[in-house]
Amino acid sequence: MAVGGPELGTVVGIDLGTSNSRAGVYKNGTVVIMKNDHGNRMTPSWVAFTDTERLIGEDAQNQASSNPERTIFNVKRLIGRRFNDPEVQREIKFLPYKVVNKDEKPYIQVQVRNKTKVFSPEKISAMILRKMKETAEAYLGKEITHAVVTVPAFFNDAQRQATKEAGTIAGLNVVRIVNEPSAAAIAYAVKTDQDRSIMVNDIGGGTFLVSILSSNNGVFEVKGTIGEWKDFDHRMLEYFIKLIKRKYNKDISKHDNVLVKLRTECDRARRALSTQKQVPVKIESLLDNILFLDTTPLSLGYEARVGVIEKLILRNTPIPTRTSIFVTTHKDNQTAVSIKVYAGERILAKDCLQVGRFNVFGIAHAPRKVPKIEVIIEVDAKGILHVKAEDNATSKFQTQWITNDKERLGMDDVQRMLKEAEEFAEADARVSERLEAVEELHVSLDERRSKITGKLADEIGSYFAKKTGSTLEEGLQWLSDTRNMEKDDFDAKLKRFEAVWNDFSFQLDSGWPLSPRRQLESIAHSIRRSMAGKIMDEIPSHYKVKMEKTLKKSLQWLEDNPNADKDDILKKLQQVRAVWHRIKLAVIDMAEEHREQQDEL
């Protein structure tokens, strides 16, 4: 900081820092650090853009947490460097604003009045230098055009030239670039006339350098400088990010507005350490109003069938999240249902953890499967599970959520369950196939049973309808007693019941009762449909040929005998049924024999 000769006029000294900048002048035999318009001798090296204006210094820093993408700082780490410089790439990871590659150099990209603009680090630095120029002019009461600007001792020629260019853009003639340790030594030495050696420790936001200088009759010589680009602010930032994550289980590394607040306090603490041995870092409401996108550690589901889990919220789903299902009653006039909620990755309930049970009471009397109750399952931002229900019909019921507090999952339990799910993946896949076969058989039998009960059964009133119903009931009972059989067993049983049902399905679809002539025609149509369908794919071709000849012969007889007697038609009908029945039994026996051979292998 000095006053120039008559040819230069007043020359101000500007400390263009990574975090903060200052402007000083040598006046009346002493050095004065000039105050800015906020009354501070130190101005944050920050620039911000809003929808209406550009802010520099304290004004930019104070709004940073609400406008992080358009608040620029730490450009000193970018100035004079190439975009692919490792230091630049490392710095970008910590910056909330966007840095882009332009002509192999780092440029800052921001939105200004709804337009995308890019600024070079020199341009942003020029804005800060102009602020320092205006501060000096306000204090001195005259225009300033010359300045001495400090840079780190390790700055290379490109960085020094870029700093000088920034001064030119700011309207300053940079008459000298001075190393920061030298500037500090000069500021100290001007207070004494004694010749001496001086050690300068330069701890800035982005530097840690030690320099040895000697003064002799006002001449300063740098004996040596040692140190490197030590990012103190970054180190402090990384330390507190890890501390917060360990202590509060919150990761703030992706929240730019929070990082800006923390970075500002780290900078203030570092500067305070120049005069204090210990400085606390206090930030009020740092974690307030932050949505931390945690995820569910395990899948959540409910017991959709006895012992079987249906997943509703998959593992690693970001929270908060919610989903819903519709449940119903399984018995006529059922007034309550119970839903068991589980956490885990396995198929069966016994291999997962029951986290709670949700009971619904006061359901209005109705036939089974008529009530539709929407159950909403929600995991809030704190990871807490909430369950509620809504009845689309009445909404007049009571609910009860019972939490399983005895078995809380820790991270060790989660890891154990995930490992088990991986180990038993193949076994669970086989279980899943078997359960799908069970469900297919159950649905098939249940739907067909519903068709031959109630009013329709009274209208049919036939022996064959009763026999079909009895066969279906037998199948449902078998299904209830044999849940541990393999998938092939259920598939074989399904085919047997489908064969029985096909003899009856056409009558149900066409209405009942039918005349003997119409019955014969319907049976012929039903058999042909069965032979063309997937259920009877295994019918050998010679059986199909035999059945088709029988059908053609019977239908031709009907056509040739329009006045045939009822009993004669019923005899033809019984003949067709008998042939069809023998073919089905033969096919079923062949399928079972084949399966037994496979089992033996």
TrEMBL record:
Keyword Isomerase (UniProt): no
Family (UniProt): Belongs to the heat shock protein 70 family.
Gene3D superfamilies: 1.20.1270.10, 3.30.30.30, 3.30.420.40, Actin, Chain A, domain 4 (3.90.640.10), Substrate Binding Domain Of DNAk, Chain A, domain 1 (2.60.34.10)
Superkingdom of the source species: Eukaryota
GO molecular function annotations of the record: ATP binding; ATP-dependent protein folding chaperone
Organism: Malus domestica
Pfam annotation, one family: HSP70
Entry protein name: Uncharacterized protein
UniProt keyword annotations, A-Z: ATP-binding, Nucleotide-binding
